[in-house]
Amino acid sequence: MDFGALTTGLVTGLREGVEAALIVCIILAYLARTGNGRYAGPIWIGVGAAVLASLTIGIALFITVGGLPEPYEQVFEGATLVVAAAVVTWMLFWMRRQASSVRGELQAAVARVLDHGGVVGLALLAFTAVLREGLETSIFLVGQVQAAANAGDGGPLGVLVGAILGLVVAAGLGYGFYRGSRRIDLPRFFRWTGIALVFIAAGLLAGAIHEFVEIGAIGFGTATAFDLSGVLSDTSGVGGFLRALIGYRAAPEVLPLVVHVTYLVVVLGLYLRPARVPVVSRSEPTAAQS
To answer: What interhelical angle do 72-98 and 119-151 show, nearest 10?
Structure first.
């Protein structure tokens, strides 16, 4: 089993799993605090349905990619990698922007559903909230599995095992959040896992461009930029680990290399810049008090 692929799956499963766990914990904690703990059942039904739907879509997408003839398989695979990189990029910046308000928005949504007495509404609320995280995870993992499959050496299995381990750890952390644990620094956790996902997404995007170059869909930037095969091969050892983790190639074409570096510079620069703090009038209550 490839350790680099295991690591990518672990980071993805842990990050996305923690986000989903936080959503569920916020909803359940609000129900308990408002004396509506009896409605926890519909929440879990919605969560289960969202997980099942995400798995179904992910499996269907993976089977579709593998069942196409050449060169359509490579085209669809490249498109999947592009979509996966786009999804994780959008998710990172959405979470960065909405982190301070997501709790209040979820609690307000739960309150509205309770006011209308809709048990089905609670299940749908949990379903839609978790499904978004599940779809992001499924698409991103399918991209990682495809990239790992190209590298060989048990990479796809490593991605899946890592993702399962990450989700299990996330579930444990979610239980700790619900029980009131404050031992984990969530802003720091999301920041560092976000950085790791940026590097993973850059590798997926470069891999997509490589697929398009390989089948002749892109006719420029196809020359080999450099060849480090004699120094650090990407087929075994440290090079293989880096290829599975961040898309390292010992002999990359010019265009995939440019895309890889450009994505890292632009996205990391935007992601790491200080977040804008909204100016709140002294006469208005702050979000932190909610």
So the answer is: 130
pLDDT digits (tens, 9 = 90+) for 194-241: 888 899 889 889 988 988 888 888 888 899 999 888 888 877 778 878
What is the distance of C-alpha 282 from the center of its chain? 37
| 275 φ/ψ angles, rounded to the nearest 5 degrees | -75, 145
Domain ranges of the chain: 3-275
Residue 224's DSSP bridge partners are 253
Contact 151, 243 (CB under 8 A): yes
pTM of the model: 0.76
**Type of residue numbered 156:** P
Q: Alpha carbon of 178 to those of 27, 29, 85, 109, 131: distances in Å?
A: 10, 7, 31, 19, 20
Residue 221: strand, helix, or coil: coil
HSE, CB side, 13 Å, CA atoms: give it for residue 15: 28
Rounded Cα gap, residues 161 and 168, in angstroms: 11
Q: How far is CA 107 from CA 16, 23, 33, 256, in A?
A: 20, 10, 11, 44
